[in-house]
Amino acid sequence: MQARTKFAIGAAIILVTLVWLGWLGAKESKTYYHTLAELSTMKGPELHQRMRISGYVQKGSIRRMSNQVDFVLTEQGRTLPVAYIGTDPLPDTFYENNAQALVQGRLGPDGRFVAKQVEAKCASKYVAAPGQAQASSYAGGGAQQPATAH
Prior knowledge:
With 150 residues, the protein is α+β, with helices and mostly antiparallel strands. The protein has 2 domains: 1-30; 31-120, CATH 2.40.50.140. 21% of the residues lie in helices and 28% in strands. The protein has helices spanning 3-29, 36-39, and strands spanning 32-34, 51-57, 63-64, 69-75, 78-84, 100-107, 113-120. Strands 2-4-5-7-6 form a 5-stranded mixed barrel. A hairpin with a 5-residue loop joins strand 6 (100-107) and strand 7. Residues 132-150 have low confidence and may be disordered.
């Protein structure tokens, strides 16, 4: 076999491998957004895809365990049990009453959603409470106050 033929075969194998790895990576990184109402209508392979779901954290449903946090999301009378197994700490606003959360992960075979990421909606919006001076966080000022409902 000539050197050019060996080189062409090797290059083709590398190219096919890179294309295959790229396709797998793109397929795995897709995240679909669904509502709790849509989950009840999904069937087959749709149920096993990576997805994002938002809802309200049910009051009193947060339970910490050694390696996970369990809670229940609710929306329009529907509920979804969630097991968060990520490594990042949960946002502070997650523990407020009627906190909105956005979870990302997969639906397990038992109907429990296994989340790798949890975000509290609007967690970055903080303003001083009415009648109080706004503290500067850059000068080592006091704690920030959560935003009030508008």
